[in-house]
Specification:
By secondary structure, the chain is an alpha+beta fold. It has one domain. 21% of the residues lie in helices and 37% in strands. The chain is built from three helices and eight strands. The longest helix has 11 residues, at 33-43. The protein is globular and about 30 Å long. The chain starts with a strand and ends with a helix. This is BrnT family toxin. InterPro entries: BrnT_sf, BrnT_toxin. It comes from Mariprofundus ferrooxydans PV-1.
Length: 112
């Protein structure tokens, strides 16, 4: 099952918003700051910059196979490059687990 979500994220004083049927949605993000720094060192992107994925109107969300809490793989573009992000939803927040460059098969799925 693939779900498409449309969000707009603007850096600086602006906020991430989505207008769905006249309702403004402002997603809140949550993540481990230390893990964000480790992700930056390993994959070249931290979780703060990863929030820009929600700026991609074609972002894909795919349920991940997990045995504990539900997780999702999101595939989108930031500055023309494909990125894959694993998230979970906790209460009203999007918790970022990891972000990396998308694999070939993920890019193909995104582009299909």
């Amino acid at each position: 099952m693939l779900c498409k979500h449309r969000f707009l994220f603007c850096c600086g004083s602006n906020t991430l918003t989505s207008d769905i049927n006249g309702i403004i949605i402002i997603p809140m993000f949550d993540f481990d700051e230390q893990k964000s720094l480790l992700n930056l060192a390993k994959h070249g992107i931290d979780f703060i910059d990863a929030r820009q994925l929600w700026n991609d109107p074609a972002i894909l969300e795919i349920p991940a196979r997990t045995t504990d809490e539900p997780r999702y793989l999101l595939i989108g573009k930031i500055a023309g490059k494909h990125w894959s992000c694993v998230v979970t939803y906790r209460d009203d927040r999007i918790r970022i687990i990891s972000v990396r460059r998308s694999r070939k098969e993920e890019v193909a799925l995104y582009e299909s």
